[in-house]
Design a protein that fits this description.
Layout (H helix, E strand, L loop, with lengths): L5 H22 L2 H4 L3 H27 L3 H10 L5 H8 L6 H13 L1 H11 L9 H32 L7 H19 L4 H13 L6 H26 L2 H6 L1 H24 L6 H9 L5 H6 L1 H5 L5 H29 L12 E7 L4 E7 L20 E8 L2 E3 L12 E7 L3 H14 L5 H4 L5
Antiparallel strand pairs: 1-2, 2-5, 3-4, 3-5
Length: about 450
């Protein structure tokens, strides 16, 4: 039985993208990407525009697509893939200033690209309305941002104050809020994808109960979404047609990777004074994944001329260039001297409420290179009302003494009352960043 339902693939692809963006937002640390948001915002708008124009020109002059098909090609492949970027950045130790730009860009740029692809897929095509198109993009992004902020803040307040009857309901509630955010943005003719990412970013950085369960649930759903998405896209593709468009995919891919992406990065980051090697790494790390292939189904549904060829070229381009860029990214980072494998990482703290006991159970993981290594339990100087109750080391658990020295790879269970929960978490983060003397000068009264 032949599968050729582009409309179903597009619809399920949108649903999968909502799940993937939700997981990405929940796992992104706001304090790490906050300095990078202006750069990422420009990359996701001005950078996308530059990339679309350069790639479209290459598609028109190199492989003979008409201008509507060429612009569609440029728009479809100009979005970096959130799932691919999030996955690679978890394995490649990049400086936070660069990782933040790449994470934020991959979360932001789906929204303007979807708007462009839908606009270029209109029949008849009207290129003279480009000024109205820019205004439409800005308006939809603004609506999506507002919807995401409102639902994210309301969700943070609601989930933080209402005790649900079971811990398993919290992940479902968070996912429901993110889906509601997408629906709200779409109904108001805004960017639902931007709304989803903003809502997930707010909820992921809020002090919500059972955050480990929420993130684990979202991570599992994102994996299912990615697997199902690739299965659908594989069913939609025809192998012998893909091979016919192998060399056009190579030509457009080289233009995108070696010209369009670097030029968009240089133009976008020029006001921010980024170093050339930073720009080089950001250029090479513009990974594509399933999202551009999903976007390539939009012109097929609209029955645009050459839409099947666009889909085949994008499919081949994504497979070939992702297979090249992803594995070589660590090598490129080392050659540019931008690998931060020795940079101290924050301790990973997760919190679960103990409602009846009016307390919290903090699960603390000490990562490699954390400055909490070598600190004795008593030197943590936790506030009264908090205590380290258990240490898990090399698969074995024990109750620590005040003189027990903590090590890389340890997992701690810390019990804290409601009153000192925030203070306890901040103290653990401070020690992880600054060692046993963190805050000593501030906490110790000055001698006269």
């Amino acid at each position: 039985m032949e599968f050729d339902n582009a409309e179903l693939t597009r619809t399920l692809g949108y649903a999968a993208l909502v799940v993937i963006l939700t997981e990405g937002g929940l796992s992104t640390k706001w304090r790490e990407i906050r300095p990078a948001v202006p750069s990422a915002a420009v990359l996701s708008t001005v950078g996308v525009g530059v990339s679309v124009l350069v790639t479209a020109s290459a598609a028109h002059f190199l492989i003979g697509l008409d201008w509507q098909a060429a612009l569609l090609m440029g728009a479809v492949v100009s979005s970096t893939d959130a799932a691919a970027v999030f996955s690679v950045l978890r394995k490649v130790p990049l400086p936070k200033r660069l990782a933040g730009v790449l994470e934020a860009e991959s979360g932001f740029n789906d929204a303007p690209v979807v708007i462009l692809v839908v606009a270029f897929s209109r029949v008849p095509f009207a290129p003279e309305n480009r000024y109205l198109l820019v205004g439409e993009i800005l308006l939809e992004l603004a609506i999506g941002l507002v919807v995401g902020l409102v639902i994210g803040r309301l969700g943070e307040l609601g989930l933080g104050r209402v005790a649900l009857p079971a811990s398993g309901l919290y992940p479902i509630a968070v996912m429901a809020l993110c889906v509601l955010s997408y629906a709200g943005g779409a109904i108001l003719h805004g960017s639902g994808f931007l709304a989803v990412y903003v809502t997930a970013l707010i909820l992921g950085n809020a002090r919500l109960p059972h955050r480990p369960a929420v993130r684990g649930f979202a991570d599992g759903l994102a994996w299912i979404a990615q697997i199902g998405l690739f299965v659908l896209l594989g069913l939609l593709a025809t192998p012998h047609d893909l091979l016919d468009d192998f060399w056009p995919a190579i030509g457009v891919g080289l233009a995108l990777t070696l010209v369009a992406r670097p030029l968009s990065v240089v133009v976008s980051l020029l006001p921010f004074g980024r170093r050339l090697r930073d720009q080089a790494l950001i250029s090479w790390a513009g990974l594509r994944g399933a999202v551009p292939i999903v976007l390539a189904t939009i012109p097929r549904v609209a029955e645009v001329h050459d839409s099947e060829r666009i889909f085949n070229i994008v499919f081949m381009l994504v497979i070939i260039f992702t297979a090249v860029q992803g594995p070589t990214l660590p090598w490129v980072a080392r050659k540019l001297n931008l690998s931060d494998s020795e940079e101290p990482l924050d301790v990973d703290i997760e919190s679960a409420p103990l409602e009846r006991l009016r307390g919290h159970l903090l699960s603390v993981a000490i990562p490699k290179h954390s400055k909490m290594h070598g600190v004795e339990v008593t030197e943590l100087r936790l506030p009264p009302g908090a205590a380290v109750t258990l240490v898990v080391r090399n698969g074995s658990s024990f109750v620590p003494l005040p003189t027990t020295m903590l090590r890389h790879g340890d997992e701690l269970l810390v019990v804290a009352t409601d009153a000192v929960r925030d203070q306890t978490e901040q103290r653990l983060l401070d020690v992880g960043r600054g060692g046993k003397l963190a805050g000593w000068l501030r906490d110790t009264p000055r001698r006269k």
